[in-house]
Design brief:
With 155 residues, the chain is of the alpha/beta class. It is built from 6 helices and 5 strands; from the N terminus they run E-H-E-H-H-E-H-E-H-H-E. The longest helix has 16 residues.
């Protein structure tokens, strides 16, 4: 496949490790492969309450919780994501702790993302009214184009 010159060089893919995030990752890889000199960034945001719970839950432990969590996440990325990225595409992985959409937008600014790819999770209408969706918050606040991949329903 021949790559095309493009204004999109830095593509940010956000994952929560759901099946739909894996499906959306295919779109991000395709976008990176089709653009000359594109770089693909993968970001996973760990919600702050979850991170705090685990830190306090195993505070007596003899091992570093942050190092263990990072090792587990790295292992998951090495199994589920890294093999899908061609060697010709630079690939960088990052983790953040905090409010999902805020950390995604901060990281997008930090790397000067030209495009964000995110999978949309199914949400019932009542839940959406009260909580909104991460994808919607990103799409309405991002400084760059956002591709929202609908929930994968199978083939």
């Amino acid at each position: 496949m021949e790559t095309q010159p493009s204004i999109i060089k830095r593509i940010l893919m956000c994952t929560d490790f759901s099946p739909n995030a894996g499906y959306a990752f295919e779109f991000a890889v395709d976008a990176a492969v089709r653009r000359e000199n594109a770089q693909l960034y993968l970001l996973h945001v760990i919600p702050e309450p979850d991170a705090q719970f685990w830190r306090t839950y195993i505070y007596d432990s003899d091992f570093n919780v942050d190092e263990k969590a990072k090792a587990d996440l790295d292992d998951k990325i090495d199994r589920e994501y890294r093999p899908k990225v061609p060697v010709s595409v630079p690939f960088e992985v990052a983790f953040r702790i905090g409010k999902d959409y805020q950390k995604i937008l901060e990281y997008a600014d930090e790397i000067s993302a030209d495009m964000i790819v995110v999978g949309r999770q199914g949400m019932n209408p009542l839940k959406k009214i009260f909580f909104g969706s991460v994808a919607e918050k990103i799409a309405t606040r991002a400084k760059c184009p956002v591709i929202v991949v609908p929930k994968f329903m199978g083939k």
